[in-house]
Each structure stands twice: as C-alpha cells, then as structure tokens.
Amino acid sequence: MSEHHDAPKAHEAHAPHEDPTTGPHDPKEINPKISSDIAHWSKEFGVTSQVLHEAIRVHGTHVDKVRAALHSH
Q: What pLDDT shows up at residue 15?
C-alpha cells in the first residue's frame, strides 16, 4: 500500500530556458500588466523591468519600437 510515493516533483515544472508557457503573451506586443511578459522582454533586451517599463511608457508596447529605442542608447 505504500507504493504510491510517486508524487509530482514541484521543481521539474520550472525549466528556466525555452519554456513556452513563460514566453510572451503576444510576440509583437508587450503587455506591461502581465509579469511574464515583462520578465521575458526584460531578459530578451538585457534590461531591468524598470528600464523596460520606461521604454514602454515613452515608445509604446510594440516590440520593434521598444527594441529600437533600447538599442539606440
């Protein structure tokens, strides 16, 4: 009766690389209200979430516009 010790391991679900569930909600638009979007694009652009939020505030949420603004500095 003790054979059912195969409980799911919580840490296996958190693959840090290439996990499609933590990718952007929309590949062309950044939604600043979705924390996973901010985390994804901050990492993608190599900036902090604060820098990303400022770029979104100034340039809008379109990925190409934000990318261009961040790479022009």
A: 39
Report the b/e string of 16-34 with b at 16+ CB within 10 A: eeeeeebebeeeeebeeee
Cα 30 from Cα 58, distance rounded (Å): 13
Q: Interhelix angle for 35-45 vs 49-59, to 10°?
A: 100
Q: The pTM is what?
A: 0.68
Q: State residue 23's pLDDT score.
A: 77
- Specify whether the CB–CB gap between 40 and 25 falls below 8 A: no
At 5, list the tokens.
């010790």
Other C-beta atoms within 10 Å of 37: how many?
21
Task: Report yes or no: 40 and 27 within 8 Å, Cβ to Cβ.
Answer: no
